[in-house]
């Protein structure tokens, strides 16, 4: 046997959960590799295989044996190992016995912290095959399986019943038992096209034999690419384009061992139903791909993947069409029924749905959000009455049959029903936009009314949940407050909205009964939002010093904070940045230690040194130059102006002693430094850029 062999491990099962197959495969690969590494077994590369009925890993170039591992056991300190005559103590003799050697065979270890007796030896490496059972079982035990099941009379549990186990080390069959199933060198082909066992003579033959003889494409990524190509080609024949959702592509790839496309169609009258509802049925219920035309309008076709290469595909086509028709009929029925009752008439039903026990019903929430949304809309120059109307209707579609069947359509169906009811366009769009962004990277609301309602709704949840003492702890965030906060910040910053968050939080707090929330709720939420703002910029790779320099000033407008942070990040690249940051830190320390009072502004006639006069004059000149820039929010240009103070500041600290005995000079210089620091603090605490 050569020094390395290829290792193949395959676990054959009943159909694995399609939504989790990819994750399970990646975790199994990781577990096997980690097991080999923990045992110091070297290997070259590992490849995963995953189909509906198997998890497998092929590890190339696996060492046939562990290396010999140096072992060092530390014994008693030398001072306790020998008596005054130099004879071994009982402690030394006991340690030697435990190591199976004489005291004379022990070595000495001397370090800065002391000296000890030590036993050194080489632990002989075990053969890899002797370690595989534990490595495999540990990898299986570590798989992210929410609920394991037992089958038959077995005491073993796994995500699905196990039918076969294949373990090969090169050509050697590793005979062991995994979860109650004895291993061998046979696999199974396609459940229908080649259900017979297939003997794998060599680990490296696995994939090609499974595909050529077993009618199975074992590599997930290759099978997935084939699914994608087949779906795209089928859509092209239909004269449209397939919409391929990545999650659905993963799921369909996890259902078939060898894909074959089947196209189907449905009656055009179903297209009268909002396309999102039809797509929810096509994708969610049936796992089909839908097709759109050149204008991205839904076409009356679908594409599914069969796991069988049928000689009569038209029968499979007819069967799928028969299955989807009742589903689409249900959607049409819901659409017609829901339109019969206007959204506004569903408001009263919101009383029956509790938002949170202490915070009341969804009707209570809608009424609070309406107040805040109206105020935000006014600040954005939009129609406050439309914002209030949108907020009051925002949860009404939750009371419809369609949203009850497809919860993911909340807001979307509200838009359709509002249009049918004759509500204003801005109100209808806002109902769709209220939940945006639903996740990181999702689309943001683009209309002022939609932005107002989306922000107000999230603010209400934040203030309410914080106010009753249920703020997020650790990984627990049942109300999605972190996501809500990030959503608000993204809307305000990325849509360039000039909103003061602290003011909005106070207004949202006022919408609640005065005795319901704890004191300082809005301030707690404000601090929480600043922390999430810090994470928002860290994810973008912005220097943490730049972030802290701005957030330490507790900016109340996220948009203004964004401009400051990006300006400070640019300022850091200037040659003067390091010197001015150091000077600001020095000024901060001087002022912090000063207990005496001093004027708010220095007096020019009290200066005695040329360097302080020069700094004073340049400060006044710079203040005049940057005040209009600050008013425009042009912080980058402002900091470039401030950077020109570098020489004057350096000269001041080189030539002027601040804490002199002369009280008038000392207090005047402290006022000068405070003026200098105050000018920088209009943008950020530059002292935090230091180190």
Automatic annotation (TrEMBL):
Localization, UniProt: Cytoplasm
| A cellular component term, taken from the record's GO annotations | cytosol
Q: Read off the SUPFAM superfamilies from this record.
A: HD-domain/PDEase-like (SSF109604)
Keyword ATP-binding attached: yes
Q: Which Gene3D superfamilies match?
A: Isoleucyl-tRNA Synthetase, Domain 1
**Domain of life where this protein originates:** Bacteria
Catalytic activity, per the record?
Answer: tRNA(Gly) + glycine + ATP = glycyl-tRNA(Gly) + AMP + diphosphate
**The DALR anticodon binding domain, residue ranges:** 586-689
Q: What class of enzyme is it?
A: ligase
- Give the record's GO biological process terms: arginyl-tRNA aminoacylation; glycyl-tRNA aminoacylation
Q: Which family does it belong to?
A: Belongs to the class-II aminoacyl-tRNA synthetase family.
Under the heading HAMAP family, the entry gives: Gly_tRNA_synth_beta
Q: What name does UniProt use for this protein?
A: Glycine--tRNA ligase beta subunit
Q: Record the organism.
A: Beggiatoa alba B18LD
Lineage summary: Bacteria, Pseudomonadati, Pseudomonadota, Gammaproteobacteria, Thiotrichales
